[in-house]
Amino acid sequence: MTAPVGGPEFINALLFVAVAGLFLLFARDWTVRLAGVVLMLPRLLAAPLTLGEVLLFGCTIVAAISHIVYGWKFGTGEPESEVPEVSDAPEPDDVSEPSVCVACRGSIPAGESKCPQCGWSYTTG
């Protein structure tokens, strides 16, 4: 014979499902949050809650609402969709002032990109 529906084992199983629904309240997607509420409803309607269950549900619901409000206020809900453009081409060398050659430590005159002493250059080719 089967046990009647509504016994303590059934209430405990509903509590297990409701706790899973509590975790879903912290999801980013509203449909998942709604699924969490739907999972909690059978336990909330099946029998009066014990004091421990009231504390569990109450604290978790307050924390989930705080999480949602914090996300609205500080914009943690969606990542930024705009990606900065990256330039592949290097900037041209500034040859308007004299510089020091990195190879021989000689002086490269203004307007030149090649060392007159050793021939070293930033440019290839």
Cα separation of the termini: 90 Å
Structural class: mainly alpha
* Main beta-sheet strand count, sense and barrel state: 2 strands, antiparallel
Strand order of the largest sheet: 1-2
Principal-axes shape call: rod-shaped
- Helix and strand pattern: HHHEE
Number of helices: 3
State Rg. 34 Å
Low-confidence stretches: none
Transmembrane segments: 12-32, 44-70
Keywords: Membrane, Transmembrane, Transmembrane helix
Task: Sum this structure up briefly.
The chain crosses the membrane at residues 12-32, 44-70. The chain is mainly alpha-helical.
Task: Summarize the SSE layout with pairings.
Blueprint lengths: L7 H17 L5 H17 L4 H24 L24 E2 L6 E2 L17
Antiparallel strand pairs: 1-2
Would you write up a description of this structure?
The protein has helices spanning 8-24, 30-46, 51-74, and strands at 99-100, 107-108. By secondary structure, it is mainly alpha-helical. The protein has two domains: 9-74; 95-124, no CATH class. A two-stranded antiparallel ribbon has the order 1-2. Strand 1 (99-100) and strand 2 form a beta hairpin. The chain crosses the membrane at residues 12-32, 44-70. Keywords: Membrane, Transmembrane, Transmembrane helix.
